[in-house]
From TrEMBL:
Species this protein is from: Lentilactobacillus kisonensis F0435
Highest taxon listed in the record's lineage: Bacteria
Name under which the protein is recorded: Uncharacterized protein
Length: 41
């Protein structure tokens, strides 16, 4: 395995983790927003 391949693998893993986390945060935000707006209507 070359150094470039290793870097690509690390970057891909980091991006994957970031997008999973980002999607999770967006999901939490939408859930919180829905309950929040219901509570104050």
């Amino acid at each position: 395995m070359s150094c470039d391949e290793l870097v690509d693998l690390t970057v891909a893993k980091g991006l994957q983790r970031f997008f999973t986390f980002f999607r999770f945060m967006m999901f939490l935000n939408s859930e919180n927003y829905n309950t929040f707006s219901k509570r104050f209507r």
